[in-house]
């Protein structure tokens, strides 16, 4: 195995035997095979799409296959093997469809000559004979092909191919969430296929790949906008909410991850059962949606971010439901009461599948909960949330006034991920050290490093404006754009906003590319720069966007303020 896709990669270079995250070498290799297979599905499906022969099942498979390989999502050998088996079936199905529609030639399995294709079908992707990897993607040969990252020898090309691939994984995760609620975007799917194929195209060097990486960012903005629409149309616009972080005396079920539809189904199915529902980690922002507020048994949030789950899940005492990333390898003490669903998997952990309409039956989990002790109290009080773009902008006048009047000097975007390494105390220290006339804008689980500090407010505007999950990062973009409008600025870089972003996994990679595609410059990134960014690619990022690694709190305060 070789994996360097996340911030905690071994020695800041790459995991080679087992992942720091707990992913074993065999599963890592299978995940590489799956990604390789997805590229060949993308090849056929892009032809199917341009001929209007594509289907929803294949789109869903591409998204889920990518999402399953995001850090801390699926550790199960059986699951990845099953996905590979299914992937071959899907690939063969799409190919057959193309042959019977005469889009590709049955005998060679390849495209018609370019001139016929252009005349009859319009310009499409390259013929498969031009992408030699296609011949290697068969159930018999896949195991003997080097599908790993290091198969690309040129360090800069490898770096850009991986940057693009990780952006696509993030995009797939966000598109998956929108899909669950019935929102789809053909252009996003077409881009994912085009970009997957580009990572296998040896004619593409730095000059061709850099624009594609930025296009990944702009398609990322579109994906996040779609997800925002899906969430707010389905569940309403989040409202400023003081979220309870204490517990009640009833047995409870803890819902983690990012999937709001799963939470909704739990709330529906637990009515009248005497079982309470709590959120964990990235599910915290669900407490601010109007659609969920009416449920009397929706108690609040329990604990902190993903890396604290071993300790906190033990103390919760009841069943835990992992809707998406981040799951960490569970301890024996609670392995019998943790469940996965969707793309999440861990061998030995029970998995709940949806029926064909997307409905899930949680009755067994609810029965188990009834027999469990109530959660052990970890803390008490409330934390403020629910400042997605609509509620944040409802006080825009107040904010603009406070900036003009000098009460607010600066906004600092501290969005992104949390992580387990001790050095992340930097983000707590940084938040505490910020002067009282600054406001933090956040989204994602990075907030747990400072959302329980008492940072106060500025004339009623809280000093931590929490837009929600990493899935809600679009809100930060809208807030910045609307503030620029209110101040009459053409360039969002002229706003009194600086960026101190914490990343961990590939959804954060996409959010970063989204910001770059919007022209945001001067982003400080930490706690470590991605190992997959080669020195030359870093130079491009520094020259074009002035990205810098974070340093000490004192130094960064000087730079960012
Ligand atoms: Fe290592 Fe991160 Fe890859 Fe896990 S996801 S194997 S920790 S680089
Ligand atoms: Fe967190 Fe995993 Fe990235 Fe959704 S839950 S932000 S790390």
What does this structure look like?
By secondary structure, the chain is an alpha/beta fold. It has three domains: 1-151, Substrate Binding Domain Of Dnak, Chain:A, Domain 2 (Up-down Bundle), CATH 1.20.1270; 243-370, Rossmann fold (3-Layer(aba) Sandwich); 389-560, Rossmann fold. It has helices at 25-50, 56-68, 77-100, 114-121, 155-180, 186-198, 206-235, 260-269, 290-293, 309-316, 363-370, 389-394, 396-404, 425-433, 473-486, 506-517, 535-545, 553-560; strands at residues 241-244, 252-256, 276-279, 298-301, 320-322, 338-341, 350-352, 382-385, 410-413, 438-442, 457-458, 461-462, 464-466, 497-502, 523-526, 548-549. Helix 1 (25-50) runs antiparallel to helix 2 (56-68), helix 1 packs parallel to helix 3 (77-100) and helix 5 (155-180) packs parallel to helix 7 (206-235). The radius of gyration is 23 Å and the shape is globular. Mean pLDDT is 94; it is low at 111-127.
């Amino acid at each position: 195995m070789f994996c360097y896709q996340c911030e905690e990669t071994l020695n800041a270079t790459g995991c080679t035997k087992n992942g720091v995250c707990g992913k074993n070498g065999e599963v890592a290799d299978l995940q590489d095979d799956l990604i390789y297979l997805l590229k060949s599905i993308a090849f056929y499906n892009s032809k199917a799409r341009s001929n209007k022969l594509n289907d929803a099942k294949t789109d869903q498979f591409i998204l889920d296959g990518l999402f399953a390989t995001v850090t801390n999502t699926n550790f199960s050998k059986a699951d990845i093997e099953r996905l590979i088996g299914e992937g071959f079936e899907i690939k063969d199905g799409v190919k057959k469809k193309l042959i019977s529609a005469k889009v590709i030639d049955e005998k060679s399995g390849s495209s018609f000559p370019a001139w016929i294709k252009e005349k009859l079908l319009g310009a499409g992707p390259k013929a498969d004979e031009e992408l030699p990897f296609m011949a290697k993607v068969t159930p018999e040969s896949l195991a003997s092909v080097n599908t790993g990252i290091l198969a690309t020898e040129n360090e800069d090309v490898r770096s850009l191919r991986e940057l693009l691939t990780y952006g696509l994984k993030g995009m797939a995760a966000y598109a998956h969430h929108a899909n669950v609620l019935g929102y789809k975007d053909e252009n996003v799917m077409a881009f994912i296929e085009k970009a997957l194929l580009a990572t296998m195209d040896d004619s593409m060097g730095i000059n061709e790949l850099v624009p594609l990486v930025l296009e990944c960012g702009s398609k990322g903005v579109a994906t996040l906008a779609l997800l925002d629409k899906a969430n707010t149309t389905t569940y309403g616009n989040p409202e400023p909410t003081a979220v309870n972080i204490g517990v009640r005396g009833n047995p409870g079920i803890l819902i983690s991850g990012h999937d709001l539809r799963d939470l909704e189904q739990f709330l529906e199915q637990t009515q009248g059962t005497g079982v309470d529902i709590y959120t964990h980690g990235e599910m915290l922002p669900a407490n601010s949606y109007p659609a969920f507020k009416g449920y009397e048994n929706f108690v609040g949030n329990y604990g902190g971010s993903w890396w604290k789950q071993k300790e906190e899940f033990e103390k919760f005492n009841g069943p835990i439901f992992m809707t998406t990333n981040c799951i960490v390898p569970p301890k024996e003490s609670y392995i019998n009461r943790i469940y996965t669903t969707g793309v999440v998997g861990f061998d030995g952990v029970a998995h709940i599948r949806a029926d064909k309409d997307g409905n899930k039956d949680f009755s067994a989990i609810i029965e188990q909960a009834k027999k469990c002790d109530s959660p052990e109290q970890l803390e008490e009080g409330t934390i403020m949330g629910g400042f997605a773009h609509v509620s944040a902008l409802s006080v825009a006048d107040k904010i603009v006034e406070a900036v003009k009047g000098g009460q607010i000097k600066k906004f600092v975007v501290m969005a992104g991920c949390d992580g387990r390494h001790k050095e992340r105390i930097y983000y707590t220290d940084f938040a505490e050290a910020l002067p009282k006339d600054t406001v933090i804008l956040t989204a994602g689980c990075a907030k747990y490093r400072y959302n329980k500090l008492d940072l106060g407010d500025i004339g009623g505007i809280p000093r931590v404006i929490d837009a929600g999950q990493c899935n809600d990062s679009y809100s930060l973009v809208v807030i910045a754009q609307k503030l620029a409008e209110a101040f009459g600025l053409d360039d969002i870089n002229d706003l009194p906003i600086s960026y101190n972003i914490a990343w961990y996994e590939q959804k954060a990679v996409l959010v970063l590319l989204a910001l770059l595609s919007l022209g945001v410059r001067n982003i400080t990134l930490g706690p470590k720069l991605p190992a997959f960014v080669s020195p030359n690619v870093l130079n491009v990022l520094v020259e074009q966007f002035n990205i810098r690694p974070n340093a000490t709190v004192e130094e960064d305060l000087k730079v960012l303020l």
